[in-house]
Amino acid sequence: MTAIKKTAGIPLLLGALALPMSLSAQEVEATDSNIDVYGSALTEGPEVEGIITSRSGDKIRVTLENGTTTDIIIDEGTEIRATGGFLGMSSKKLTSRQLLNGLPVEVDTLQFDGGLVASRVKLKASDLETAAMIRGATAQQFAEQREDIDANTAAAEALRGRMANIDQYNVRGVTNVYFDSGKWNISSEGEREICEIASQAEAMDNALLLVVGYTDSDGDEDYNQVLSERRAGRVTNYLQQKCGWKPWRMLTPTGMSESDPAADNSTPEGKAQNRRVSVNILVSKATEEG
Asked: Model's pTM, two decimal places?
């Protein structure tokens, strides 16, 4: 927690803010004494919408669309929820440990003399899956590819030295490659698009590629997991063998089966959009700022 003394929690404060406006002066004075949180009374703060770009102790830093940043305290009373499912109507309560770098969030805040405290953090379950996948894939990739990295000492050391916070990425380009039902062979159009995004990434300093495979909702779930992995693996092989992309500049390919559909699976057109492999260009925020 911060060094500022805390004498009450957010739930107490939220209740106090909801008290009727008809309170007497004596009642208001008594209420004020109960909402002395973080050393000063809290008032309603702004809603902050952006991407988590760093964590430090009990604080998160959220970068807004215009590039400005806002530091927000995550309190033990902060409500953190992920929405997903049909029309986003389901909701799952999360812990502060699941607020990962790279995660888009909407934060309702309370304001005090020392800054902002989060009363509620809202995010999408699909975004949380992607952020967790990138974080895990990054760690796994650097472990599995250590020998390849050492074989490319000069380039690898320059890359690793500038990526102290490698899980903090900017997405600089995305290409979706589409597949026929039950297939994982790449069309001629898909081959062209794969090499095109590799060329785009090659022009960016220290860019990495993340390849993620998906399926539509047809078929057995276990088979779809295998199918999504085969599609991701086929695209990865093509990137390396035909487009000249170096293995040590690629995160571990991942199959996500039917999750995170891009379109409605109840129509043939929607299913066609969901049978895809997403090739993402990632550039470390530390690299770009350094």
From this structure: 0.46
